[in-house]
Amino acid sequence: MIKPSGACGVRMAGTGSAVPEKILTNDDLSRILDTTDEWITQRTGIRCRRVSDQSKEGTFTLSRDALRRALDAASMKASDLDLLIIGTCTAEMRCPSLACRVAGDVGAINAGAFDVTAACSGFVYALNVAETMVRSGRYKNVGVIGADAMSTMVDYQDRSVSILFGDAAGAAILVPDPDLNRGCIYQTLGSDGRDWTGLYIPNRAQEVPEADKDNPIRLGYLRMDGREIFKFAVSKFREVIADALEKTGLTADDISQIVCHQSNARIIENAIEKLKLPREKVLINIDQYGNSSAGSVGLCLDQVWRAGKVPAGKPMILVAFGGGVTWASNVWNV
Ligand code: COA
After folding, report:
1. Domain range for residue 307?
2. Rounded to two decimals, what is the model's pTM?
3. DSSP letter at 168?
């Protein structure tokens, strides 16, 4: 197995998550769109998703609540943090960063704070950056959040994209550990920006490529080439997990959990089947939450962490892919 280097190891001291209360079912959608519960369930595995009440919630409140829960789980105060990184593509404001607003609200005063934009890969991107900074010895207590309120970014007049997405946030607190083997033993960050039109949110007509000019989805809302993204996700997802196992010399038996982005149950099932992964080691919660973009991996992590499914001494793999197109993995020795 790979021997990590650096000034120290890294321990995950606590995790947290937050979702809005409001549940939007497939039947609810079938009342406003030309779709059915049967179509959505069969093609995606999604039965319902959580959506924000935009008058009082969104990416900011979900991030804040997830962070507070992670701090509680770590028995730490916000003022103990010296850095906060948020992976998101739905921050309410372009300036200041979402991380600054959340840090200010919870009381992480003087902590460094910045956002990372990598669409659905946002949490794993932020985790990889945070882990590297703690491991270097330059930063001690770092909060990592993945959060998106995708319900604010989908056009509910269009059935092709809106049925997939929901809102969520997940958070983790990283702290230094004297054991160098603790924390991330292997990670990847990847992108292929040539394929950005597969999933994008244009604000101005001049940004829309000629081939997508007739897309009925309104400006300011998420556009997606579902079939292309499906093909990309199926092959990339398998490739990234296989690479993480190969490079670390681990087998699926050595791993406690593969914590993966929830984009479509068929994509996850495909990886389970082709890589012969033990089904009980891959949480699928897309039926309840839909695709919550950068919120999804952090939400899954919090669920498996609190359920005691990622015990110390056994590595877990975190894996995500999304718009950009981007992908990321992290093999974490708990
Ligand atoms: N309800 C009913 N019918 C629908 C529909 C809906 N919500 N959305 C599309 N359809 C129709 C299409 O119009 C099409 O009809 P046609 O055959 O008469 O033209 C038919 O269903 C098949 O459409 P298609 O787009 O080929 O379906 P699909 O099997 O590829 O499923 C997705 C569509 C979006 C579920 C699937 O492509 C997907 O999951 N892609 C990946 C998306 C993703 O993971 N994005 C996030 C990445 S992080």
Report:
1. 1-334
2. 0.97
3. E
Ligand 1 pocket, residue 329 CB under 6 Å: no
Pocket of ligand 1 contains residue 306 by CB under 6 Å:
no
Contact 135, 88 (CB under 8 A): no
Tally of structural domains, the chain:
1
Q: How far apart are CA 186 and CA 228, in angstroms?
A: 29
CA–CA separation, 210 and 273 (whole Å)? 38
52-103 pLDDT, tens digit per residue, is: 999 999 999 999 999 999 999 999 999 999 999 999 999 999 999 999 999 9
DSSP, collapsed to helix, strand or coil, labels residue 165 as strand
Best residue among 30, 117, 261, 264 to mutate for probing ligand 1, ranked by most atoms within 8 Å of CB: 264
Catalytic annotation, residues = 120, 261, 291
Domain at 145, CATH number = 3.40.47.10
Q: Measuring CA to CA, how many Å separate 216 from each of 36, 43, 101, 198, 199?
A: 20, 22, 34, 15, 15
Question: What are the C-alpha distances in Å from 68 to residues 16, 173, 271?
Answer: 7, 10, 34
